[in-house]
């Protein structure tokens, strides 16, 4: 179940993007309006932030598996995990990007 949650979340995000583009196409919106371009960039930043976190967490997970197999010192892996700020940075950055997307869609500043 734990591995399905990110996949379901990503699928929901992509479905939202597709429906957003379909809405823009059928609603007569210009795809190159400034606020839509800002939204594209913000959604890209949202996806990039998630990909970077996933890559960092997978790297730590591989090190943990190596430590469990005796190929790496457990203390080293624990230090790497404690030093990693990836998760602490991920949530505030995603909240800021998500808030910016909402503001961009509501206010249409450009």
The percentage of residues in β strands lies in under 5%
Helix content: over 70%
Number of domains: 1
Overall mean pLDDT score?
87
Tell me what the structure shows:
With 110 residues, the chain is mostly helical. Helices cover 82% and strands 0% of the residues. The protein has one domain (31-107). The radius of gyration is 19 Å and the shape is elongated.
Secondary structure blueprint with pairings:
Layout: H1 4-26, H2 34-68, H3 74-83, H4 86-107
Helix pairs in contact: 2-3, 2-4
Short description:
82% of the residues lie in helices and 0% in strands. By secondary structure, it is mainly α.
Observed structural traits:
110 residues; mainly alpha; elongated
């Amino acid at each position: 179940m734990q591995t399905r949650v990110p996949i379901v979340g990503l699928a929901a995000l992509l479905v939202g993007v597709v429906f957003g583009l379909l809405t823009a196409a059928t609603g007569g919106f210009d795809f190159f309006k400034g606020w839509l371009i800002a939204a594209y960039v913000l959604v890209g930043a949202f996806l990039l932030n998630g990909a970077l976190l996933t890559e960092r967490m997978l790297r730590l997970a591989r090190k943990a598996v190596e430590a469990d197999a005796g190929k790496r010192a457990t203390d080293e892996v624990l230090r790497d995990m404690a030093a990693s700020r990836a998760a602490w940075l991920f949530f505030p950055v995603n909240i800021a990007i998500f808030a910016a997307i909402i503001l961009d869609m509501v206010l249409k500043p450009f």
